[in-house]
């Protein structure tokens, strides 16, 4: 995919407060930790979000801004393929910064062609999903608060809840049971963010089965490097195991497959260095018999829309986790998709997203 001359790149911090603290096993987030990237290509501007998540990414908004500033000299005035452009600016470093710039370039390129990013990414003639259905995340909070959140989201049409766990498996089981009791038709996706030992993960899986909870998948039960633990849970838990932190590159995916350490992979553009790398990982994972989740790292409407275009270009995914824009106290963007409860309908050229202040 050849990109015309890049005329300008700008980047500014993007911090949007959340309605509730986003507490996971590896930390707490009260606002997005991201950078808004604008790239102008042949007179057309594209947008990208470079999202950092404390405890998951090593990059911060400050280091992302520094990386983009350092890359600007190589990128502005250049033209060529997306891969060559990004290699000249970032090499193999700074995947979060690289992902934000790549997203903005692809947005501008698609707008120039009068098409969508998902159509730009999908092979000719491939099926494209224009509608997706997301889960909604329940962070680690007091049990009553977690139940109240689940009940409130159920009233808005959500039936699939991604419940964060990992601090104490017995407390986590009690919270899952309480959510199920309050919302009997709830389907649960459990996410430990790598905090459990294999034994504790299996204890939780046995207890959820004993209580007849509808658990669709168990995401990253063990630490990123603990592939032996991940493989044990995959063999013994009786539910699909999805690798998130353990897979950030094709090399990671190959190691995971060789060890039988998961039955699915969570694709995230920020941790993987952009939409194109996430697509490549997703296609290889699917060709190897793994299932796919597509998610994000506490992003705004902009970042979530970009993730939706990855899922769409893949023809859909097994588990859609594209909810964090719903968790924010305000929305600095418009467009990209229309939401009908958990159902998301993509629209517009490029990503279809503009900032609220833009015409």
Can you tell me about this structure?
- The protein is an alpha/beta fold and 359 residues long.
- The protein has 2 domains: 2-114, Enolase-like, N-terminal domain (Enolase-like, domain 1, 2-Layer Sandwich), CATH 3.30.390.10; 131-355, TIM Barrel, CATH 3.20.20.
- The protein is 38% helix and 26% strand.
- The chain has helices at 61-75, 82-90, 95-113, 117-121, 143-155, 169-182, 198-210, 227-236, 250-259, 269-272, 275-287, 301-313, and strands at 2-3, 6-14, 17-24, 27-31, 33-41, 44-52, 80-81, 131-133, 136-138, 160-164, 187-191, 215-219, 241-243, 264-267, 291-294, 319-320, 333-335, 337-340, 343-346, 353-355.
- The strands form 6 sheets. The chain has an 8-stranded parallel sheet.
- A hairpin with a 2-residue loop joins strand 18 and strand 19 (343-346).
- Helix 1 crosses helix 2 (82-90) and helix 2 runs antiparallel to helix 3.
- The two termini are 29 Å apart.
Write the layout of secondary structure elements.
Elements: E1 2-3, E2 6-14, E3 17-24, E4 27-31, E5 33-41, E6 44-52, H1 61-75, E7 80-81, H2 82-90, H3 95-113, H4 117-121, E8 131-133, E9 136-138, H5 143-155, E10 160-164, H6 169-182, E11 187-191, H7 198-210, E12 215-219, H8 227-236, E13 241-243, H9 250-259, E14 264-267, H10 269-272, H11 275-287, E15 291-294, H12 301-313, E16 319-320, E17 333-335, E18 337-340, E19 343-346, E20 353-355
Parallel strand pairs: 9-10, 10-11, 11-12, 12-13, 13-14, 14-15, 15-16
Antiparallel strand pairs: 1-7, 2-5, 3-4, 5-6, 8-19, 17-20, 18-19
Helix pairs in contact: 1-2, 1-3, 2-3, 5-6, 6-7, 7-8, 11-12
């Amino acid at each position: 995919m050849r990109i015309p001359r890049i005329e300008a790149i700008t980047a500014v911090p993007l911090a949007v407060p959340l309605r509730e603290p986003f507490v996971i096993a590896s930390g707490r987030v009260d606002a997005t930790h991201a950078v808004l990237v604008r790239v102008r290509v042949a007179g057309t501007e594209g947008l990208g979000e470079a999202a950092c998540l404390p405890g998951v990414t090593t990059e911060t908004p400050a280091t992302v801004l520094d990386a983009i500033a350092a890359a600007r000299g190589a990128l502005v005035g250049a033209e060529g393929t997306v891969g060559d452009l990004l290699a000249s600016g970032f090499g193999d470093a700074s995947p979060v910064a690289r992902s934000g710039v790549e997203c903005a370039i692809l947005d501008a390129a698609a707008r120039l062609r009068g098409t969508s990013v998902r159509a730009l990414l999908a092979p000719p003639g491939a099926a494209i999903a224009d509608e997706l259905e997301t889960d909604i995340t329940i962070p680690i909070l007091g049990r009553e608060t977690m139940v109240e959140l689940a009940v409130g989201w159920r009233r808005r049409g959500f039936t699939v809840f991604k419940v964060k766990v990992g601090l104490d498996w017995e407390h986590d089981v009690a919270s899952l049971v309480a959510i199920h009791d309050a919302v009997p038709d709830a389907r649960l996706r459990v996410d430990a963010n790598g905090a459990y030992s294999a034994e504790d993960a299996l204890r939780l899986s046995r207890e959820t089965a004993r209580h007849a909870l509808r658990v669709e998948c168990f995401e990253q039960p063990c630490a990123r490097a603990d592939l032996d633990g991940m493989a044990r849970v995959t063999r013994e838990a009786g539910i699909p195991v999805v690798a998130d932190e353990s897979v950030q590159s094709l090399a990671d995916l190959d190691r995971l497959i060789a060890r039988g350490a998961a039955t699915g992979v969570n694709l995230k553009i920020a941790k993987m260095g952009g939409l194109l790398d996430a697509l490549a990982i997703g296609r290889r994972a699917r060709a190897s018999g793994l299932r796919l989740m597509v998610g994000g790292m506490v992003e705004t409407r902009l970042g979530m829309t970009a993730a939706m275009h990855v899922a769409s270009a893949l023809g859909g995914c097994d588990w859609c986790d594209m909810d964090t824009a719903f968790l924010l106290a305000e929305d600095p963007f418009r467009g990209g998709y229309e939401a009908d409860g958990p159902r998301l309908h993509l629209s517009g050229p490029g990503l279809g997203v503009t900032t609220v202040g833009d015409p």
